[in-house]
């Protein structure tokens, strides 16, 4: 009888530990999904910022070219 009680206690502890592990795994999965979503948002934001930077660089080069053309038209003193 004592052996059965010990076995029952051990099984109960194991069930509790398995339940805790299940909760931890569920929490881990939820965090991984949240991070995946956050990473996707950050990836889109980064792509948009890089596109904006390329656009600004192009405009700067164009402005530099126009400035060079204007400077070339100014007579030397």
Topology record:
Layout: H1 2-73
Structure description:
The structure is a single chain. The chain has 1 helix and no strands. It is mainly α and 77 residues long. The chain has a domain of 26 residues. The radius of gyration is 33 Å and the shape is rod-shaped. The N and C termini lie far apart (113 Å).
Strand percent estimate = under 5%
Distance between the termini: 113 Å
- Spans where pLDDT lies below 50 across 5 or more residues: none
Major β-sheet annotation: none
Helix/strand order, N-terminal first: H
Percent of residues in helices comes to over 70%
Instruction: Provide the residue-averaged pLDDT.
Output: 93
Given helix and strand content, the structural type is mainly alpha
Give the overall shape.
rod-shaped
Count of extended strands = 0
Helix count from the secondary structure assignment? 1
What's the gyration radius in Å?
33 Å
């Amino acid at each position: 009888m004592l052996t059965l009680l010990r076995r029952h206690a051990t099984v109960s502890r194991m069930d509790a530990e398995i339940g805790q592990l299940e909760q931890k795994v569920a929490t881990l999965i939820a965090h991984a999904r949240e991070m995946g979503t956050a990473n996707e948002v950050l990836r889109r934001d980064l792509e948009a910022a890089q596109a904006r930077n390329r656009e600004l660089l192009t405009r700067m080069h164009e402005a530099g070219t126009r400035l060079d053309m204007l400077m070339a038209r100014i007579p030397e003193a």
